[in-house]
Amino acid sequence: MQIYLPIAELSVNIFLFLGMGAGVGFLSGLFGVGGGFLMTPLLIFAGIPPAVAVATEANQIVASSVSGALAHWRRGNVDIKMGIVLLIGGIIGSTLGVWVFGLLQGLGQIDLVIRLSYVVFLGIIGGLMLVESLKAISRQRKPGGKRRKLHQHNWLHGLPLKMRFRRSKLYISALLPLGIGILVGILAAIMGVGGGFIMVPAMIYLLGMPTAMVVGTSLFQIIFVTANVTFLQAWQNQTVDIFLALLLLTGGVIGAQLGTRAGSKLPGEQLRSMLALIVLGVCARLAYELLVRPDDLYSIGGALGHGG
Amino acid sequence: MMGVGRIALLLSGFAVAVMVLGSARPASAQAGVADLSDHLIAVTAGFAGTKLLLFGAIEGEAADVVIVVGGPADQVMVRRKERMGGIWVNRHKLVFGGVPGFYRLASTRPLDEIASDRILARHGIGLDHIRMVNPKGENGNLADFRTALIRNKKRQGLYPTETGQIAMLGNRLFRSDIFFPSNVPTGTYNVTVYLLRAGKVISAQTTPLVVSKIGIGARVYAFAHRHSALYGIVAIAIALFAGWFAGAAFKRT
After folding, report:
1. Full-prediction pTM beyond 0.90?
2. ipTM of the predicted structure?
């Protein structure tokens, strides 16, 4: 069964996209990740124009983060003060990101920048995850390994504008979460991701936040940053496809529930190495397309740069 | 009574035919008439491509028929990739004007048997002779870019490569199915029927055809472009509601 997507301006198979939503939703439920970094490349592989893929995925992430954030909120696992500082950074970053996005679209380089960003970030994250989980698996076999210190004092703690974050029991410079927020906001706008895969490790390792607070607080920030991206992309670039978002959302909700159930029955470290392999696989596919001579050196698009 | 009625009907039919022919091309109109089964293609939410029937009649002795369906003209930017630091990057670009968004051809025989290249070029018949406005200024690679444009349009299915069939009935009546893929651009199309005899165009009749988004998809598109800020807010509201609803629904199970 076909449906015509009014903004992407092409007709797609409903079940293919429901399935993609469910598949990525399953993985995100299984691994507890956002899934945007898998969905956007998949949409591009499926022929959705990259600009529409990125903007629409931001819209879908708004929905998928709400239910998670509400659950964490009820358990008191959201550090509002930290979340707001991250959010201010996120709004600055995503506004900047959408502006750069439009600029690159005009230059015909947005496709390249989206792909390059994915190759770089998926490569780094996938590589780190794989190394970590392999280490953890070998540690499980040889008990008695060294534990790392929770707090390491370095130059980051010498920054000005110190603020007290009671919930996270931290007294750190506000510039740190602000900077993380800006970086994640830029990524959200250009890559169509929530940015949890950057923010969560940064909050744990750079800020030293308690792990219980990290996920809820990052989801809180992601809702508002992706909402800002959705609004700006719709307003300035008209690239948000509500039909496509609804298809992905419907599949995603069902997939995520199944994934969460399956996740509780599978061992954690093996799961993480599996996710790492998936991430590296997507990265390799994108890198391959950049490195290998394309079948046709020429491409066409509208004079305004759409579809570039 | 019957006879008078039939004559009146014939006369009125004749009058209509004269009016139609007269409005098209007075000088060459006697050679034939043609029309489409529909003058509007509605791109609805379930649109997956469609097919129209073009039919007509040739007056007088046998002739070759060529049907050209040309989509709305628009500017197209052609970009060329180059290798930079190991990766393939868009470097050069040229903008062509007046490029038809869709181009489909049907003919009774292969084009090269029907008329000379010169005649076909003069009437813009055939993928090699599509009319477009070349970019301004000196450019040595113009031909490469033009070929690439047509190649890309072909790959998108908008310039179908194979020439369509035209069925002839007793050297007088002809009919042809015209296929439109699901990604046809919206706008006003021109369907031109050429009649050729001995390698010369003896008649050309153009019928307009409108491809338009209809229904909910059209409304969504118009809303997204006319009230884009409000559209963004609605998109966020839908997402927030869907997320909340999903969380609430699955918490109970």
Report:
1. no
2. 0.85
